[in-house]
Amino acid sequence: MYPSRFRYEAPRSLAEALDLLRTGDEAKVLAGGQSLVPLMKLRFAAPGLVVDINNVPGLAHHELDAEGNLHVGALCRHADLERSQLLKAVQPTMAAAAPLIADPIVRNRGTLVGSLCHADPQGDWASVVLALDGAIVAEGPAGRRTIAARDFVLGPFQNALAPDEIAVEAVIPAPRGTPAGGYLKLERRVGDFATVGVAVAVETQADMVTRAGIALTGVGGSTIEATDAEHALVGGALTPDRVAEAADLAAAAARPKTDHRGTAEFKRHLVRTFVVRALGRTGEEAA
Amino acid sequence: MTTVHEIHEEATGDVPIRRITITVNGERRVVECEPRLLLAHLLRQGLRLTGTHLGCDTTNCGACTVLVDGRAVKSCTMLAVQADGHEVTTVEGLATASELHPLQEGYREEHGLQCGFCTPGMMLSAKALLDENPDPSEEDVRWALSGNLCRCTGYQNIVKSVLWAAAKLRSE
């Protein structure tokens, strides 16, 4: 299979890339290409112009700023995050998710920001970034703007970017307490979509949960933020009772369907189990 | 110079052919191709390096795995023009004229090869692993090969072959 014809440009600066997008040629931005190229081969996508940003400098970073916010550039690969000592030290939810994205070969090319832009309702990073209350920074003709992850996805495969904007990085806000959590995923085999994925990100101060984020992958038509479960956790310690209550609320927030990956009941059960496991581990770490 | 024209569709005339330079198995190649040509097609049809196999053609199976600047990449999911200025290693680049690569020897010693279709991709994923980690555990090998499917399900012997190669490379 090969894509329909398109014009290809590989600009060497962000300004040049943005100029190309303004030509209005039904352009698509190509970073890792691990979703876009398959879509083009299947002819679900047929852009007139492909703007390959792989030669644009300054987008491959993942680093903390002075306030402790984590910035992940548009060319930071999943594999960079998987190997990152920084993530292991400061961001347990993302460190847990990185090795579970797709497969090792895809992780060498694919990017977190590209994955968010692709807006696949089954995407793992979308849940992780939502649970962490992250945002996407877009650059366009009018300058930069920041879009909260929860406002970024408009529908399946639809994001909030204007046609002349490029997502340049994702930003995860600095935790105010001690961060803990994880990403748990059941997949039938490596590289398959999640049967169920659960992202948990809590912050604690003196054993008290000050912030909680829980988001679900694969159990509805979109990424689901389990807000009731989050609220149930904030303001108390991670006691077994409170964890069980949050797990029940997260399971109630799921909208799973029975399909070839499992029954709705099974998936709901997995959500509950994964929340308990993620928070159970968190409780042990806090103790 | 190699000219690649294997996509036979009526040219619309407004899509420029691009000239790219890539180093394949140490040899510099200048190629003219359409932007939509996939790296896998350039290697197989354009450069006649048919050791790189196309299995699923949907980014799943890993049969088309090659190394781009030392990193394992699914060549069915990368445009040839994206390899401009980069180094590509295919399975043909493993052996020398007189000697097999230890991975290839390992496959022979441990019967890693059944139908052989997944073998080139497996070997290149394994090479990327061994270049980074010369002393992998069995778990490390399984993890590194988890993006490559063997439909003969001959995984046990593939893992043994890679561990054999790792030991051989360490003893050299």
TrEMBL record, chain A:
Keywords linked to the UniProt accession: FAD, Flavoprotein, Oxidoreductase
GO molecular function, one term: oxidoreductase activity
FAD-binding PCMH-type domain residues: 1-177
Database matches in Pfam families: CO_deh_flav_C, FAD_binding_5
Superkingdom to which the source organism belongs: Bacteria
Protein name per Swiss-Prot or TrEMBL: Xanthine dehydrogenase family protein subunit M
Organism name: Amycolatopsis carbonis
Lineage: Bacteria, Bacillati, Actinomycetota, Actinomycetes, Pseudonocardiales
UniProtKB/TrEMBL annotation, chain B:
InterPro entries: 2Fe-2S-bd, 2Fe-2S-bd_dom_sf, 2Fe-2S_ferredoxin-like_sf, 2Fe-2S_ferredoxin-type, Beta-grasp_dom_sf, Diverse_Oxidoreductases
Keywords, alphabetical: 2Fe-2S, Iron, Iron-sulfur, Metal-binding, Oxidoreductase
GO molecular function: 2 iron, 2 sulfur cluster binding; metal ion binding; oxidoreductase activity
Stored Gene3D superfamilies: 3.10.20.30, [2Fe-2S]-binding domain
PROSITE patterns, per the entry: 2FE2S_FER_2
Pathway membership: Alkaloid degradation; nicotine degradation
Domain 2Fe-2S ferredoxin-type, first and last residues per copy: 18-94
A Pfam family this chain is assigned to: Fer2_2
Keyword Zinc: no
Full protein name: (2Fe-2S)-binding protein
